[in-house]
Every structure is written in structure tokens, then in C-alpha cells.
Amino acid sequence: MKAHQGVRLLLVDDEPHILQFLELGLINEGFDVRTAPDGLSALAVTDEFKPHVAILDIMMPGMNGFEVCRHFRNEETEVAVIMLTAKDEIDDRVKGLSIGADDYMVKPFSFDELLARIQARLRNQFPGLLGEVRCGPFVIDSRRKEIRFKETVLELSPTEYELLQHLVINHGLVLSKPMILDKVWGYDFGGEENIVEVYIRSLREKLGDKEHRIIRTLRGAGYRLDLT
Asked: Are residues 18 and 52 in the same domain?
């Protein structure tokens, strides 16, 4: 059985060569893939296919990616949305995220990066599809709420579990303190950002990460977990 068997992906782009390239690559990874050349077709496919993840190009004729994403959220569709655009413009990024997109990528991008972001969305929103998730020396068992590091179960508080899970599934990405607070503590958290530092310090102790090679601090930017 392939690792991603049973995971449904919808690709929406008006450029046929991009659709074909991504479709072949993702099918090879074991995903069940459907494609659509425009927004209206994407909605029709979604009703029947019910994808777990939708990869939406923003600039399309007729109904664009923003409108498709907004429709998903208005209908309370559970699909995770990754938006694509050829423009590296902050306004597009902010607009996409503000209407409910879960992630954002700028063309051109590598297939490996897209695959990593799809997997991150699945681990975040559909952990049951993947069962135990292995990332380097980490194994996340979402059903038992356990994380193993080098095959040893870590003794974690509920908040430590949520924080470490968030770092692991987004490994290689820089996560700012506000991003971590919003995801782990919730948007209505009224405490200080320094609470993140306290929990990071505790995780480093439990991982034996004295030299900060696993959970790295990027001064002025945030934290990044590296798989070593």
C-alpha cells in the first residue's frame, strides 16, 4: 500500500502543462488526484469527489482561486486549501489567508516543497488518514497523543505535545511566536509571548537538545525544527 493511498487531492489550474506535471507526480506518490481547469469546474468536482486537499491557482478566468476558497469556507467544507500564484505579492497572500486558505505558495516552486506542504496540511487537519506519522527521528501517534523521539516516548504535558507536534509537522519552516501562539494556545490567548520561550526550553531539555540543533532559534524571526 502506498503511503498516501486514500488521500484525495484536487488540482485547479488553467495551465494544462502544470496540471499534467503535478497530477503525474502526485499520483506517483499514491494520492487519488482529480483536476479542474477553472473555478466552476472545481466546485463541480468537489461536490462529487470531496477532496481532503485542494491546490488552487489564484489567477484563473471566470471564478478565480479566491472565490473558490471563499465558497469552500462559506459552505463549511473541511478541505484544506493551498493557494498558488505567480505573483510574490503580500496583498495576495494576506487576502488568501484572510478568506480561509491554509497555506500559500508562489510559482515557480519545487515539487518536493509542494509535497511537504500537502503532508503538513494532512498531519494538521486529517491526522487519522496517516495514522502514525514519521518525520526523521520523530513519530507522532495522534490517536494516543504520543510523540516518540528515537523510539522513546517523550513525557509531555498536553501543551508540550501540541507545540512539539506543530514544530515537527512544519519542520524546516520558520514559525514566529505569534504564529505558534495562535496555533497552540489559540487566537484569544491573553498572555505574554515569552510563554513560547519557556515551553521551547522545556522541549529542548526533554530532547537533549543542549546545542539547539533540533529546535533552532532564528533571531528576530522565530523557531525552526530541523530533522537531524
From this structure: yes
- Asked if 48 contacts 23 with a C-beta cutoff of 8 angstroms, the reply is no
How do residues 14-31 score in pLDDT, each as one tens digit?
999 999 999 999 998 888
**CA nearest neighbour of 67 among 40, 45, 44:** 40
Range(s) of the domain holding residue 119: 8-126
**Is 72 within 8 Å of 46 (Cβ atoms)?**
yes
**Count: domains in the chain:** 2
Residues in contact with 101: Cβ distance below 8 Å, sequence separation at least 6, in sequence order: 56, 69, 81, 82, 83
- The whole model's pTM is what? 0.59
Strand stretches in the chain, DSSP E:
8-12, 32-36, 53-57, 80-85, 103-106, 132-135, 138-141, 146-149, 152-153, 215-218, 222-225
Residue 101 has φ and ψ, to the nearest 5°, of -65, 150
Q: What is the pLDDT of residue 188?
A: 63
**Residue 172 DSSP class:** T
**How does strand 32-36 pair with strand 8-12?**
parallel
